[in-house]
Amino acid sequence: MSERIKGILFSVILIVIALLLLPVVIDSVGSVLAITGISSYSGVEAITGLIPLFVVVGIVIVAILNGLWAMKKGAAW
């Protein structure tokens, strides 16, 4: 299997794993917001609510960079 295909396949697998873990992240953030009483601090609740977005964006960026690296590494020239 060529390096390009392996890199793209790894990127897809990485995104699938991230999407499988996303409900766990969302539930964890919901539990933190419900149990700890963090809403009494100004702005912390809003930032904590953005954690699932940061996780998804981070995984997508890593997958894109990995795919681009694999395409560059597998280039014939």
Structure write-up:
It is a single chain. With 77 residues, the protein is mainly α. The protein has one domain (3-73). It is built from 3 helices and no strands. The chain has helices at 3-35, 44-49, 51-73. Helix 1 packs antiparallel against helix 3. It is elongated. The model has no long low-confidence stretch (mean pLDDT 85).
Question: Which helices and strands appear, and what pairs or packs with what?
Answer:
Blueprint: H1 3-35, H2 44-49, H3 51-73
Helix pairs in contact: 1-3
List its traits.
77 residues; mainly alpha
Question: What is shown here, in short?
Answer:
The chain is an all-alpha fold and 77 residues long. Helix content is 81%, strand content 0%. It has one domain.
